[in-house]
Automatic annotation (TrEMBL):
This is Aspartate aminotransferase family protein. InterPro entries: Aromatic_deC, PyrdxlP-dep_de-COase, PyrdxlP-dep_Trfase, PyrdxlP-dep_Trfase_major, PyrdxlP-dep_Trfase_small. The modification N6-(pyridoxal phosphate)lysine is found at residue 302. PANTHER family: GROUP II PYRIDOXAL-5-PHOSPHATE DECARBOXYLASE, MIP05841P. The keyword Protease does not apply. It comes from Cellulomonas persica. The lineage of its organism: Bacteria, Bacillati, Actinomycetota, Actinomycetes, Micrococcales. Keywords: Aminotransferase, Decarboxylase, Lyase, Pyridoxal phosphate, Transferase. One of its GO terms (biological process) is carboxylic acid metabolic process. The keyword Transferase applies.
Amino acid sequence: MHHTGDPGLLLGMEPDTRRVLELAFTRAAAWLDDVAERPVAPTVDADAVQDALGRLLPESGQDPVDVVQRLADAVEPGLIASQSPRFYGWVIGGTHPVAVAADWLVTAWDQNAVMRDPMPGEPAVEELAGRWLLDLLGLPAESSVGFTTGATTANLAGLAAARHRVLADAGWDVEQRGLVGSPGVRVLAGAERHGSVDLALRYLGLGAAELVAADDQGRIDVATLEAELARSSRPTIVVLQAGNLHSGAFDDVGAASDAAHRHGAWVHVDGAFGLWAAATPRLAHLVPGLARADSWATDAHKTLNTPYDCGVSFVARPADAVAALGAQASYLVATEAGLDPWTLVPEMSRRARGVPVWATLAALGRSGVAALVDGLAAAATLLADALRDVPGVEVLNDVVYTQVCVAFGDDERTAAVADALRAAGEVYASTSRWQGRTVLRFSVSNAWTDEAQVRRTVEAVRRALESVG
């Protein structure tokens, strides 16, 4: 087939970049302008979205402007308004405008952000963001910082470094020899660890963790942990959490780390949304001894309010991260200074996830990040206090951070109230199971959830209760 060589004509589209981008900006800005007052739940299902888009692949190219217009028209009714200040589902934060703008630039620049020297622009920004995060969170300044897809892959990266080190200390090169025939790795984790830890362990071939008893708020019992550590001298990894999924409670990282290190174990902290407590003097008491762990994972999209794809993995001894995740190839241009980003995360090609993180940190500054985290915790406390005053509402957790778990009587009634609340469209909170009960979980993760939004939330709960009867 002969063609002219013009990629625009070959693909059946006009090479008019500006028109397409201006339309995308207009639609995105309109969405963000209205999101606080939109119905929070989607109004159509996935089949309706596909019907609106057209299910068949076009035989010929279409005007890119028309494509973007049709995309926005079809998809918006199927979106959940997770940026709403009354959205409390699944620990999903809002998006700071500066982070959105930075993310758009990253897409337009279209760099592979893994090679420091050939493509220095974005890696330089990410290095700055990494140093700022270490300073902000009080982690060892020499730690490596890798930007991952989210908390699951951040856990994966930290636990890969852990697997390398504990087996190397036992005289086994897992990178060369694999796990078959190795001394094996024992993983100890609290009974209420997050499922992303289980996934990361599965990906690494380590199997399920041995579970250590937790208290009624989900905090690991340090005395029981120490007793379990003493039962075996096998290579061991201890997984702790900063921010329980349901209660928001924090393991005693300092005491647990000291116990683990007495037995030669590595300590990894899953701090998907809770690690940010270290960024504010008002909440730093929740993470005493945080820096005494060996690796940490978090997700900036949850608490820092960046877009998705902004997970962060920290490893106290960078050589362990590089040994576990690094690769060498003749075509890759390795840096002679610092660390190449591809050696710290599972991917060898990726977008510059750290750039929106840098932009948000630069816009907020140290005091702004502290105010953001303090505000989320304060809104959660206000919400819990107000809900306790509503007849028929039971707050089940000690509200120490950003999580509020409630029930409305038995499981059937709780589920019914939750369904009524979501159907009304003004507030969205997610149901879960905790301590043998169905609960409605409010995860306060949006910087714009203020006192007025909390009051609207409580009134919506009252109406949902009344509708159930």
